[in-house]
Amino acid sequence: MAQENLNNKEAIEKLKSIVDQIDIGILCSFNENSDYPHAVPMSRQEVDKEGNIWYICSAESDTYKNLDKSPLISVLYSDPKNFTFLSINGKVILTRDQQRIDRYWNKMMEGWFEKGKEDPNIRLIKVLPDDAHYWDSDTNMIATLVKMVRNSISGNNESIGKEGDLNI
Hints:
Radius of gyration: 18 Å
Shape: globular
Oligomer: single chain
Distance between the termini: 22 Å
Number of strands: 10
């Protein structure tokens, strides 16, 4: 894969395009009583213009409790069909911004919060990426694998995509 590090606006646009394409990220919070991260799949609500990623969670969840004690987070996105991957490390801000809750609220949320959007346990997680790295092929997984095989047989160096740091 060709190396292509992106900065500022280009980095935010790349992060947003991958997160919007994949939607479900694995959020890894850290519990001081465990050697292992606590990992849960969560759907993003938004990637804002600064490159922060927003999620809705419950104040009763282990994820929230872990993040309330330690703001460190890792978020992983994976789309093997399109050979697109993203790894983010950063910090979080936990909030209960009712305007954002109103904006993000949808029918699916009702399944998680029986008391509706006024539920006192609704919290927002704002992920502020410190560093991010992406892998992104120009084609789907099968075409990428064909290129890899062709490269290994022919000795050519046909591009199979790009990878790089996202410096936001």
